[in-house]
Amino acid sequence: MALLMRLFLKKPVKKESVLILPAFGVQLETQYGSGKTVRQFVPISRILKPVLTECVTPVTCYWSLSLIIRGEEELMLVFKELRPPVKMLAPIWKALCAAIECGECTETIT
Fold first, then answer.
1. Could you say which DSSP state residue 46 is in?
2. For residue 67, with 0-12 CB atoms within 10 Å meaning exposed, 13-18 middle and 19 or more buried, which class applies?
3. Neighbour-count burial of 89, counting CB atoms closer than 10 A to its CB (0-12 exposed, 13-18 middle, 19+ buried)
4. CATH no. for residue 32?
5. What residues does 55 pair with on adjacent strands?
6. Are strands 37-43 and 47-56 parallel, antiparallel or unpaired?
7. Structural domain range at position 70
8. Which helix (H) or strand (E) holds 48?
9. How many domains, in total, are found in the chain?
């Protein structure tokens, strides 16, 4: 019964995407298995810096792409549910750096 409740309450994510509009901002989109789509727009003026971090837990290790938002205390995750590999995250990070003209984002990622 508990398993059925967990499956019923959890909304499986089908797709997450990020659309970078250099002069305007970033649109984050999440599509759920039920067909529901949630979009969130962040104006470019509110983004201080994109951050690519390595997350380590006792059982796994993965990379995460976040945005430091002006006036917010917490980082905003770009991909909230899915965990794309760093080979996919690095070009997105570089494009975000270019869009916000972040001079500090010139580090190389291997």
1. G
2. buried
3. buried
4. 2.30.29
5. 62
6. unpaired
7. 12-100
8. strand 47-56
9. 1
Residue type present at position 11 = K
In a domain, 110, yes or no: no
For residue 5, tell me if it sits in a domain.
Answer: no
Tell me the torsion sign for CA atoms 47, 48, 49, 54.
Answer: negative
Question: Based on the number of CB atoms within 10 Å of its own CB, is 26 exposed (0-12), middle (13-18) or buried (19 or more)?
Answer: buried
One digit per residue, pLDDT tens: the chain, 110 residues? 565 555 556 668 899 999 999 889 999 999 998 889 999 999 999 999 999 999 999 999 999 999 999 999 999 999 999 999 999 999 999 999 999 886 556 555 54
31 C-beta neighbours (distance < 10 Å), count: 15
Prediction pTM value = 0.79
Does residue 6 form part of some domain? Answer: no
